[in-house]
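Repro:
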Amino acid sequence: MTVNLALRAAATNRSVAQFQRPFDWDGASCIHLVHAHAINMGHVPPPLPKFRSRQGALRGLLKTGHRTLESLMDSQFERIAPARMLVGDVAMLPGEDRRLKALVIFDGHVSVAGWHEAHPETLVWIKAMQTELIAAWRL
């Protein structure tokens, strides 16, 4: 797994570049982003179930044996305090659904990469206060 900060930053940049497109449940969701990012960071995550909608994502989540995305992340990665995040770590922001909150990638400073309703056309860097983050995981 990637530990060098320069390698973590390079993997993060690859992941963000890979998802410069509109949010789409069928291949460009925060779940797809974090799965690809985990691979870029040197992890071997289990395959993603196929889904094309929010309901499909929820069904796929249940197939993994988890009721929430937070629980799934806890099963795969070490949970850390948001204040301990390094570039390339993943955080969770509030989402529309209590089971599917938004996953984002930390830039090492004050921003996270994710989709935002103000810019639906592409993945963007969002300034996020640590107090807004629900959880964080070391990748």
